[in-house]
Amino acid sequence: VVEATETQMFVIATDTTFAPFEFQDVNGEFVGIDMDLIRAIAEDQGFEVEIRPLGFNAALQALEAKQVDGVIAGMSITDERKQTFDFSEPYFESGVVMAVADDSDISSYEDLEGQNVAVKTGTEGATFAESIKAEYGFTTTVFEDSANMYQDVLSGNSVAAFEDYPVMAYAIEDQGLALKLATDKEAGGSYGFAVAKDTNPELLAMFNAGLANLKENGKYQAIQEKYLGASA
Ligand code: GLN
User: Fold this and answer.
1) Tell me: the pLDDT tens digits for 42-95?
2) What is the ipTM of this complex?
């Protein structure tokens, strides 16, 4: 007798728009390094995924409430988040930069005095901006997603935005966004896949095992090159 085996299905939450990690292609499909990576790991480890693009902060809240099984969203591994989430091995190095309009004179945190800055709720960039805003004398406006945060700088309501370096660089260089990088990147956590603390340990183990296999067989490198070019 052959027993029917059911393939395990996991619900994975992600950001709405965070290219080159997750974004919609011309057909409305969610693509990007994170999307290709989680699908390739699922294939390697024999499970299925359902992707839910909830937005970054909403994805973390859904995970904490155990409404989803995991989050992959360019999510930085931080000590504070480790109290609520368990992380995979790191899979991408990041860090926060300040971006300004491409014709702006602002080139340092000192230049932010008396100005307004756009941040994205729940992110490392927002945490960093909040940590220096009293010292440099600026105010912040908080947005739900990266696109609206950039728009606030383009429209002149904010003079700068704080965003992850690889995402900001991609938006400027590959998507033609009329912003420029104004600072070197602040050291930040690497990206990891997350599950709720002490929940779904087998999913975390499969992610790590799959990631190791994809690094070994060249698929991880191929996914990076697909979005970042040969320099990846
Ligand atoms: N890496 C940043 C963080 O974890 C931003 C992630 C995002 O905006 N998707 O806070």
Assistant:
1) 999 999 999 999 999 999 999 999 999 999 999 999 999 999 999 999 999 999
2) 0.98
Residues flanking ligand 1, CB < 6 Å: 15, 18, 56, 73-76, 94, 120, 123-124, 164
Do 9-92+190-228 and 95-187 fold alike per CATH?
A: yes
Residue 180, pLDDT > 70, answer yes
How much distance in Å is there from the Cα of 66 to the middle of ligand 1? 19
**pLDDT at site 1:** 58
Span from the CA of 4 to the centroid of ligand 1 (angstroms): 40
CA 125 to ligand 1 centroid distance, Å: 7
- Report the topology of domain 95-187: D-Maltodextrin-Binding Protein; domain 2 (3.40.190)
| Tokens read off for 117 | 């800055």
Nearest ligand 1 atom, CA 76: 4
The string of DSSP codes covering 130-181 is: HHHHHHHT-EEEEESSHHHHHHHHHTTS-SEEEEEHHHHHHHHHTT--SEEE
pLDDT 10s digits, 144-154? 999 999 999 99
| Residue from 75, 88, 97, 128 to probe ligand 1 pocket by mutation (most atoms less than 8 Å from CB) | 75
Query: Cα separations (Å) of 77 from 14, 71, 84, 90?
Result: 15, 12, 11, 8
Would you state the CATH architecture of domain 9-92+190-228? 3-Layer(aba) Sandwich (3.40)
